Amino acid sequence: MALFAEDVIISRLNDAAYVKAIVSNRIMPGAAPQGTRIPHITLNRVSTEHHRHLLAAAGLAQVRVQVDYWADSYLGALELADAARDALDGYHGTTTIGAQTASVKQCKLDVDQTDFVEANDSADVGVFRATHEYIVGIVESVPALT
Q1: Residue 124 DSSP SS3
Q2: Exposed, middle or buried by CB within 10 Å (0-12, 13-18, 19+), for 106?
Q3: How far apart are CA 64 and CA 145, in angstroms?
Q4: pTM
Q5: Which helix (H) or strand (E) holds 13?
Q6: Does residue 1 register a pLDDT over 90?
């Protein structure tokens, strides 16, 4: 089984000392569990385009991944997003986790925005979020045609 684009992003962020210093191990796919300390990072796949040539798969996919940086201040969210951008934007190469590898042809920042997420009730406080969307060009397996 090959690695997913999300695995590559999490690995790159975990290897970035400045990101790790800010969020420790609070980098997770999907939604953060309730009660997760701020700051933290979540990521979700937005879409995947599987490239083709002639009548078959080309073995290359472009995966759009949304990465959200959650913090208790606007500047905190920006600082975390900027540290992550240093680790991700422009990356290409091979990522290895255990016995699995992924060949990344490009990791390109496409969307960069911020917002404030209001509290759900009076017991909560709102949080600041910076959002990046990356386009990750990754080599994928080619389905065998029978």
Answers
A1: coil
A2: middle
A3: 27
A4: 0.92
A5: helix 5-15
A6: no
Sheet holding 40-53, edge to edge: 27-29, 40-53, 56-71, 127-139, 100-117, 93-97
The H-or-E segment that residue 104 falls in is strand 100-117
Check: CATH 3.30.1370 for 5-139? no
Closest CA to 40 of 74, 9, 12, 67: 67
Helices in 24-131 by DSSP H: which ranges? 74-88
What pLDDT does 138 receive? Answer: 94
Q: Give the domain ranges of the chain.
A: 5-139
How far is Cα 84 from Cα 11, in angstroms, rounded to an integer? Answer: 11
Residues 39 and 142: their CA atoms lie apart, in Å, by 39
Neighbours of 27 (CB within 10 A): 21
pLDDT bin (cut points 50, 70, 90) of residue 143 is confident
